[in-house]
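the two lines:
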Amino acid sequence: MKITKYKSNNCGELNLNNINEEVTLSGWVACVRDLGGMIFVELRDRTGFFQLVSDPQVNPEAHKTFEKLKTEFVVTVRGKITRRPEETYNEKYATGQVEMYPGLIEILSEAKTLPFMLDDDSVSEDIRLKYRYLDIRREKTLNNLILRHKIVTATRNYLNTQNFLEVETPVLINTTPEGARDYLVPSRVHEGKFYALPQSPQIFKQLLMVGGVEKYYQIAKCFRDEDLRSDRQPEFTQIDLEMSFVEQQDVIDLVEGLLVDTFKEAGVEIKPPFIQMTYQDAVETYGSDRPDTRFDLKLFDVTDIMQASTFEAFKGVIADGGTVRAIRIPGVANYSRKDMDDVRSLAISFGAKGLAWVTYMETGEVKSPVFKFLTEEQIAELQTRSGAEKGDIVFFVADKPKVVFDVLGRFRLYFGKKLGLIDENKHNLLWVVDFPMFDYSEEEQRYMSVHHPFTSPNLADIDKMETDPANCRSIAYDIVYNGTELGGGSVRIHSSEVQERVFKALGFSEEEVQKKFGFMVNAFKYGTPPHAGLALGLDRLVALLARTESIRDVIAFPKNSSAKCLMTDAPAEASLIQLRELHLKSTVTKK
RNA sequence: GGGAGCGUAGCUCAGUUGGUUAGAGCGCAUGCCUGUCACGCAUGAGGUCGCGAGUUCGAGCCUCGUCGUUCCCGCCA
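prediction for all of em together
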């Protein structure tokens, strides 16, 4: 390291190899142990802890300063590294065999008593966020930032080696017609007009492909004005990349290599190629487009059995285009009536209209409210198909396919967690491919893009865009890690004709297309390479590798769950002068 | 927008059926203590029980409202 006036070495890097070296250290006083005579001080910097000792008989001058020290004072010390008496070695610290009797000590900055103790892991998050600069002094928070840095560095190294160019795209752009709510920025120069902050650099990175960049990446800030969750912040970071002259598999190969390198930074070894599962398989088997395959509990189809039964409720659902699926939950046959009521409420809260079940009691008895509608053969077939054993319950949901898969998928996760079936040491990565192109929105009464409007349809399904949009597949893919969507991407449309057909299928008029995407459609008329790309959620990736629940833990200065910064109090009111300059008038009435 | 949980000392929490002066640990202050490393010992300071209203002879505790915070649903191409 470069030697400065304040530092010749880092605290955490000293050991027996440095004995007798004269060093200068600076840092924070983590702890003072005043024994009356001797005083022990733990000095902390980014790298770790180092013990200072003061003895009034060794150095009375320095000792006077030591007596003034309090927690979190910033000090600089100079002295010789010495070996601790062997019986006082501290195995807990890397520097536990050495210490220093400083010849010189200077207090660089005093500190008030902190509002919370740095070694207390149970301090509530709002206090840590209010004093985030103190929270960052905590080893855990700092380590998360260090891990994030390592992952970003590994990403840059990997992509640079693969000949990618890192290109910045603008932050002040136009609003995005599809997708999330935009953050708007009023224009001072253009009265009544607004920029928006990007939800992603999507259009720009595609235009970089038109521009011949061929391989682009960016550690890109993205903004979405939607309600927050522990894994969602209003501003977040994507590892965004795009490549020309490639197909889906080329992107997958590249990203698998990237993930190997980034996971390595967290000490996790993963081995591509990862499983590729179709969207349809994922949804039918796991009830989710981001299946957690760390545990089994697969859904299965019983539509045919119920169709052949005399259970009119289920038969009606099936006649209306519905389906009946089931899941076997092991070891819950002893559930009380109340437990079962809770499970039923859970199903209803997940969107089911009702819940049916078969209980395989420990005694061997098999009970179900639906047995009266079934023949012996059908009951036997149910057991064969479910593989149910004594102690299990098989749950059924009948509804529109979307509802059934969603409910049973959530059931699967709920019981997976509750019954402790999830092996936390697994690192299951998989690709979900063949996403549908469109999804019908009841609210908007039209088809919407499942991915985004620039996603290429599967060439085999291209004419379904007009004839059967619901069954038109796209060339879109998601990377899923332990049941979390880490990122996704697609092969993009590179033909302006196909792009116009997609816009039409989405219900955009020609005027709308010209107005919103005219520049893009035009750009594509000047020679566009086939291209594809993907974006990874950096915050989620780091949070998962740091084994923390919330992405706030891996962001230096995050917003709380109501999108507020507890440290700076942003967002805040703007002055009337500012508003006037921006041609804005608040509609909020003051209380 | 909806649902649930939480809010008592600087921090983390306890507080019985509504009943006298609201407690603990840590931190902080002062004193003692020469090999500590969660140093130890002693003494002490520290409270708008989030805020407002209501019920009651009496509210930290019950009711309503409100604010803050967390999680979930909706939302997040």
